Amino acid sequence: MSDRMTPMPFSQMIRWILKEKEEQGTVFGVYHPYRAADQYSRQIFGRKLETPVGPAAGPHTQLAQNIAASYYGGSRFFELKTVQILDGEDLPVNKPCIKADDECYNCEWSTELYVPQAQDEYIKAWFLLSVMAKEFDLGAMDGFQFNMSVGYDLEGIKSEKVNRFIDSMMNAADMAAFQECRQYLLDNLSLFQKLTKKDVEAISPCICNSVTLSTLHGCPPQEIERIATYLITEKGLNTFIKCNPTLLGYEFARETMDKMGYDYVAFGDFHFKDDLQYEDAVPMLKRLIALSAEKGLEFGVKITNTFPVDVKQNELPSEEMYMSGKSLYPLSIALAAKLSKEFDGKLRISYSGGADAFNIDKIVKVGIWPVTVATTLLKPGGYQRLEQLALATQEAGVSFNGVSYEAVQKLADEAVTDKHHVKAVKPLPSRKLNRQVPLTDCFVAPCKEGCPIHQDITAYLQLVGEGKMKEAMEVITEKNPLPFITGTICAHNCMSKCTRNFYEHPVHIRNAKLTAAEGGFADLMKNLKARDPETGKTAAIVGGGPAGMAAAFFLSRAGFAVTLYEKEDSLGGVVKHVIPGFRISDEAIAHDVALVTAYGAKLQLNTKIENLDSLKDAYDYVVLAAGASEPGVLKLEKGEPVNALEFLADFKKHDGNLDLGKNVVVIGGGNTAMDTARAAKRTKGVEHVYLVYRRTKRYMPADEEELVMAVEDGVEFKELLAPKAQENGMLLCDVMKLGEMDASGRRGVVATGETVSVPADTIIAAVGEKVPTHFYEACSLNLNDRGKVLVNPDTKESSVKNVYVIGDGLGGPATVVEAIRDALTASEAIAGRKLVQDFDEKVTSEDVYPRRGSLLETQEGRVESGRCLSCSSICENCAEVCPNRANLAIRVPGMAKHQIIHVDYMCNECGNCRSFCPYDSAPYLDKFTLFANVEDMDNSKNEGFTVLNKAEVSCRVRYLGNIIEWKSGEKTEIPEALCKVMETVCRDYEYLIQ
Asked: How far apart are CA 557 and CA 599, in angstroms?
């Protein structure tokens, strides 16, 4: 395996697109073509342009197939990847070189091909697009434009190979690649249904009449002007000059990044001082505008180049990387506003920097176009996202009449608070599953895998979307007996794993569950009846919180005679007696209680169990779900904090009528601290609630949703403070500062030696609760040295036979759904069989693929289900995000799902697929790989194959590290599924074989 991709012959690409289109209706894996309408065409550089959007100079314009996929999706303006004198093997590029899971970073900058190879790729792409336009009815054969990008100094640009490149792009008639492509088409017209000889002969050799000048950071203004003057006067090219965000100044950039939550993005003022200065740029641009006008050419600026920042968390294997995407947008659009005002809207701007489906229509509407994109195409949906961009910018009768700088300034002002660009308050959770991707059948729903009880989320989302609430509830309650509680306050790890996070926002799975619960509860309950205890076995459950309630449900449904003991007067545990009513209503909890007891579980309320003496002889099985009932203790040098759970219980019992004084301090940063602070804010007589934590919001353990609600409620956060003592109505705190990041990305804290005081009539400590060690000792259960019960992790059975321990009382405070998981584990161990079944959604590819290229805002009610990407049926993230199309989804007869193969010769190891594979894997390393030849296979460690004889379907295979010569039909140790994959490649995807 090499990080150098191999360009494909033109003939191979023609065979590929024709066969794929005929058999699958797709082109290079793009499912929906954009068909241009002439009424929306524009003019730029004296040529037609069917849409003002396309790929930026970067990974999507490096190879011919990338450009073809982009065109099929909706691109019509192609900024070709930059060429320079340093190329091919002489160009050092650290790999992996792209990280795009949120804002994007890269450490590659110009084509990795040799300049002559790049030239040939662009010529092949020029022909491909012309063919596709006619053969597939995508638009006019002259409806798109190529814009070459060159750099980085005048000497390099005037060098023989770069100069030849420029000349060939301006007129390729004499180039061998042009003549070969043209002749191939003329010799093979029988392959086409619509393309004619006249069409082929009409394909112009004048590929580019425009150029974007890219210069290195630190390039002097005089050099920039000399290059631009050369391109305008000597080459006669319409010219854009790339401008950097550094023109805004260090203070503006730093303040903007900090304000938007990107305070962790590290950059110094070096580039701001070393790059082109604003006071030099303006007069230079004015001179170049005049020069271009004199020569009858168009001139403008390209905003912006990527933004250099420091590598701090091993994001990429380099010291410096380049930032783009959502975090670059506020800087790029601010620079556009500044220059537009400076030039009274008369300066033409080509735009790149965080454009996507949420803002591209606004950018184009103010007169800024063409717009090129990269980061949005590097995310799931990939090239398919271009269709939405093209449709969003359709407008008839548009010509360039200047830029509305007032409108651009409005966009810049809005960007700083735009939810699509502001960084999340908390560090993003890992979207990865804790296992390796399998070689076949890898499609999986990350939401289901991330759920502790593996809820069949995609199945019930589909039913909710169809309005089948009773059926949705049947799916939900198969594994979850608390749909109202989990539909209201679940920590929703499923949503953290949702692939939609890479588009905009996760599908609001929790809300959909509550929608199903509210709409389907009554009908569901009509069919639930108490069952006779079929097993003849009895079970006692101690504790009526979520864990105990769930165990009662599963065991009574399984035919056990269940008695549930609860010390309070009602079920629900902490959810009922502690969590404030503004978080969840008593009515919702009551619905779940009704569901839990529907199969006949008996209740013994107001009954406190002290030990096992009264239960062991009376019941076959005992399940302890006692909760984490021991209060956590925070010791101050002076003063005695109130326990958070005690406060919350009092708050709920007395409806907030407590005497806390005017100033309340809550110590802690978890979810309980947020509930406590919000409740204190609602307590009678309280004016200020301060939340004290030794780190910043970003490093608080609370869920982001909980933290945001506390901010919205007016809780005043006192960050970087460590509490010491309470005295005279004040809490004395040590002032801390953030230290260096550890391996996990969490920053430590260091005392500064300073102190501050915070007004504090009452201090409430939310520092975690403990398991009831004394109760377990009274039950004669074996404990570890931390006072926790020792259990079999696969069954939850303790050291005392037939006694099980579950919920918060087992491992400490956790989530409701984790309590349900424990209950199900213990119940299945007691029953000796599986107690739940899986449900699959029923969708077709026609249902799914249209969603996979579209950014959609969160919807209300059941229509939100329509945003689900149905990943368990179709997950092609790695294929979609690969610019080179090196990961492919193929259809294998006899296998229910598409299969992913990796094509080695098309891969440059950029690493982008690693970010978006739901497994803890990198598909370019871990999926079954097709190699072009034996030598390439020997240079790789990937499991995979190379075809030795296509007709005989004989392959050389690496499986489990062993090299095997295999021929179709022979007995082999190779799994049948992999044999089917290889047979299918040879039979149905022969165009992949080089």
From this structure: 6
